Amino acid sequence: TLESLARFYIWRGAFFCSFWNMLDLGLVTLDLILLIVDAASKDGSAPSFSFLRVVRLLRLARSIRVLRMFPQLALMVHGLFATVQVMASGLLMLCITLVIFGILGVQFLHPVNQRIAASGVYEGCERCERAFKSVPQAALTFAQQIITGDSWGQVSIPIIEEQPVAAVLFAFVFIVLNLMLLNVILALVVEESLKAAKADDRALLLEQERINNAMAKNLLRICEAMDLDEDGVLSEEELRCGFDDNAEFAEIMATMKFTREDCGPVFSVLDADRSGGIDYLEFVDEVRKMHASETGGVMYVVKYHFAELRARFLQSMEEEFDMLHDALAGRQ
């Protein structure tokens, strides 16, 4: 109650825009009504509504918000819920199959089981005599012995010894339930979990893209403020000053895997015309690419060194050609 009042005092009208606030308010209101009803009916004349307090368990739904703090846990929970439909369908198929085998058990196994029970083999086992008496009992016996593996030989072995042909039915039930149906259900559950994981990966990529776009907009705004001479471009010195003097710029660049040491190589690669400045949009776009890349700024360092080697090679070749030209001109 105090928490809801504090939120209403802070949020005012926006309090009613949150689903979780309305859920808390509904639960608090229900508790207050129940307290008033209990206080007004101390003599016990009024019916009890205490069972409605179970509704308070809905507060546990608030723990869903904690999943936002742990993405991997959220993926696991989402994968679990994604398989509910498959597991429900598998459970229905399993029940149908057990009913079919239960009918066969009543028709073929119950008469044999009655003869065994009459001979006194099942002394001390109260349920063994009626293991295949009805379809539900037979289905329960198959589920106990074959699916869960509990007391397999208690009923099955005496029936097989009495009627060896019954081993064929037991083997068929085992193959269909254990080796086929349960494995098919497991495979479908795993497949559905993988589909949910792929969908979650796409959702994470979209969320990361949204975050990157927001950071890019902030970065573009900061770059405009860092342009001290307002010429529409940033110099390498202005980038380094941004790291030293602008905490917000340094924080965003650190988030996007861009360090102060990357300024030189990245600037040299982007400033292809050696004008001494780079455009805001071009710089922000390249920073986003660095953030999306697993290698970060390593590729820019490699490009920078290749560019330096290329420039030195071209300069060396130009000097060699000049020397060769001078030598040929001197001979003439």
From TrEMBL:
Gene3D superfamilies tied to this protein: 1.10.287.70, EF-hand (1.10.238.10), Voltage-gated potassium channels. Chain C (1.20.120.350)
GO biological process: calcium ion import across plasma membrane
Main location: membrane
Pfam families reported for this sequence: EF-hand_5, Ion_trans
The organism's place on the tree of life at top rank: Eukaryota
Keywords on record: Calcium, Calcium channel, Calcium transport, Glycoprotein, Ion channel, Ion transport, Membrane, Phosphoprotein, Transmembrane, Transmembrane helix, Transport, Voltage-gated channel
Transmembrane annotation, as ranges: 13-37, 90-109, 165-190
Coiled-coil regions listed: none
InterPro entries found in the cross-reference section: EF-hand-dom_pair, EF_Hand_1_Ca_BS, EF_hand_dom, Ion_trans_dom, VDCC_alpha-1_subunit, Volt_channel_dom_sf
Alphabetized GO MF terms: calcium ion binding; high voltage-gated calcium channel activity
Name assigned to this protein: EF-hand domain-containing protein
